Description:
Largest sheet of chain A: 5 strands, antiparallel
CATH superfamily of chain B: STAS domain
CATH architecture of chain B: 2-Layer Sandwich
Radius of gyration of chain B: 13 Å
CATH topology of chain B: Transcription Regulator spoIIAA
Shape of chain A: globular
Helix content of chain B: 40-55%
Oligomer: heterodimer
Helix content of chain A: 25-40%
Mean pLDDT of chain A: 91
Strand order of the largest sheet of chain A: 1-2-3-5-4
Distance between the termini of chain A: 27 Å
Number of helices of chain B: 4
Low-confidence stretches of chain A: none
Strand content of chain B: 25-35%
Low-confidence stretches of chain B: none
CATH class of chain B: Alpha Beta
Mean pLDDT of chain B: 94
Distance between the termini of chain B: 32 Å
Structural class of chain A: alpha+beta
Radius of gyration of chain A: 16 Å
CATH superfamily of chain A: Histidine kinase-like ATPase, C-terminal domain
Number of strands of chain A: 5
CATH architecture of chain A: 2-Layer Sandwich
Amino acid sequence: MTFEPAQLSLSVAGSSSGIERVCESFETFSSAHALPDDVRRSIQVVLDELLSNTVRCGKVGERPLTIEVGFRLEPDALRVEILDDGTPFNPLEREAPDTTLPLEQRPVGGLGVMLVRNLVDQITYDFEEGRNRVLLRKRLET
Amino acid sequence: MNLSDERRGDVLIVRPEGRIDTNTSEELERWLMSRIDGSLKRLVVDMSGIDYISSAGLRVLLMTVKKLRGSGGQLVLGGLNPSVRQIFELAGFLSIFAVEADVDRAVAKLTGAAAGA
């Protein structure tokens, strides 16, 4: 009998197919470790927001962009680490949109980072050795 | 993503299944936009087959409701799972979208009929 390790890391190209691979790998990781649905879905949304931002804005010239994602399951929390070698970009510095505006004045988009902040319990950013690093922690509530 | 339509009288029900994220939202956008032609007045999006939605999907729904209301139409969403509902809540979308517990109630909301009647 084999057991899935309680951690998973992968390196993908900074492209939509790369995001797809991360999303599928996390889906497999979630079922293997029976992660609660709300945790799995929150992390999928967070990954989509952060990785699509990186792919859209992070590319430096013609150099291909590489994204590394690591998941680590602890007894009470899931930790996610996202590294990329693109343009320095701190997603936490982005201003939150006004979510109380009426329909006519709502900007289309700009909600992603606000969702990320609300869907995880902890988030930190740093830029070291030429790479952006975002660390996330999501509590596993029982 | 799987997409299908159902007609109930003059109500069009669009049923996306899977996840609505950066990779799938364009397909949903094309599907919805091609159905809003000025003559469609009543649209229900059945969200019961949606596992999760990111801001790319919220953007598509926002565009849809703006376009539909622009031509005098109405949109009601039904069947949001708790995670999808939470995203709507965080984004402040519950105040701009009509949301019902399931597709039958969403249709009833548009036709003025009592749900289950």
